[in-house]
Predict the structure.
Amino acid sequence: MSGPIPRPRRHPWEIPMVVLGVLFSVGAVVTVFVLLVSGASVDEELAATVFALPILIYLARGRLFATQRVNGVRITPTQFPQAHAIIVDAARAMGLATTPDAYVVLGNGVINAFASGHGFRRYLAFHSDLFEVGGRLGDPDTFAFVAGHELGHIRAGHASYWRQIGTAVMNTVPAIGATLSRAQEYTADNHGYAVCPQGHRGMTVLAAGKYLYPQVDFDAMADRGATDRGFFVFLVNLLSSHPVNIKRFAALRDRTRPGRMFF
């Protein structure tokens, strides 16, 4: 990576869904408040949960961060130095003021990574099975793409405490909350692509795992994004927090338009 990268595009569905999420949350608080004031019967546990959401989210974020810190292996210049250099380089290229802490956590076969935060701190966590793609399997490009994707969540504000509060109520509604999540994933993919364009083909690791993914035809899967249709395909995607693989791969290959949200 030679220098700063232009700000990648945000998926066009993301901000409208955030606005809708805030309306959901404000509506829930106002509704419960009005019912309480009017003397109407309100489930006490539900009312307490709605008003306590900021505290509950704060505590959950703090606990999650502490879990990674005490159980994970911190990525440093001396512990996984290649991965550390990739993360630092990507954070610098994105213009982040500081490089978030990063940890390797036990994946138990699950291939995943995530970005989150607590207070003013942001961090990344890579499941060990995914981290090995950029380490033992010698595929730093794929790891750079994933690191860029997760840093993209931070740069785009997806790890914000205030965003999580604003969208918390909507996220309890499966299809609607999942739609915001898919839009954010497309936005993060755009950041990963900006950091390491050649690394996007390694995302086949999500379909075939860390051993078989080099044998997967990325283009063949991306082609199916336009042909594999039907009600249940639509339903699976609608309820998924991430775009299904064939639509995600199609969006990574075709950089002229945003990823498809539904069909």
About this structure: Strands lie at 73-74, 101-105, 113-118, 121-127.
